[in-house]
């Protein structure tokens, strides 16, 4: 146990100025509830000074996202994948087991292409509004950075939401800020960038 506490968190390769970041997911990535420039990918691009492609499809479940991901990786050739998917599986009660298998396969596909991944946990509906444990388990399995708190935080605060399940511009800004902070902490960006 003592050794586990001393292990270095998963690191990312430094993003060059021309590198592409692909934000991939459902309505939370699409930016449902706000204008195009207010979603987290657009706000993150401003914060980190890199091109961030928004590849979010409202209502998409993990099975469809898994089918769509290879073509998106081919089209954009990203250096980094921000993966935020699963909420629609939970809302439609499709089962966490299949969602976990699909998310695991998406991370595996990206890593097989030498693309860095940041996994973003999507909360389950309920009192705690927290992501299922499988996100953290997958992040640990593949040694990829994991942001498991920010979306649940946003969805627990009415002043950060445009509707019961989507952030407003302020909520998306907070997501972008937390992701930028994670990218700096894990080496993708120089400190202060």
Summarize the structure.
The protein is of the alpha/beta class. The chain is 45% helix and 15% strand. The chain has one domain: SGNH hydrolase (Rossmann fold, 3-Layer(aba) Sandwich).
Verbal overview:
Helix 3 (40-48) crosses helix 9 (169-185), helix 4 (62-76) packs parallel to helix 6 and helix 6 (96-112) packs parallel to helix 7. The protein has a single domain, classed as Rossmann fold (3-Layer(aba) Sandwich), CATH 3.40.50.1110. The protein is built from nine helices and seven strands; from the N terminus they run αβααβαβααβαβαββα. A hairpin with a 2-residue loop joins strand 6 (161-163) and strand 7 (166-167). The model is unreliable at 1-5 (pLDDT under 50). The chain has helices spanning 2-6, 27-30, 40-48, 62-76, 87-91, 96-112, 134-142, 150-155, 169-185; strands spanning 20-25, 51-56, 80-84, 116-120, 146-147, 161-163, 166-167. It starts with a helix and ends in an 8-residue tail after the last helix.
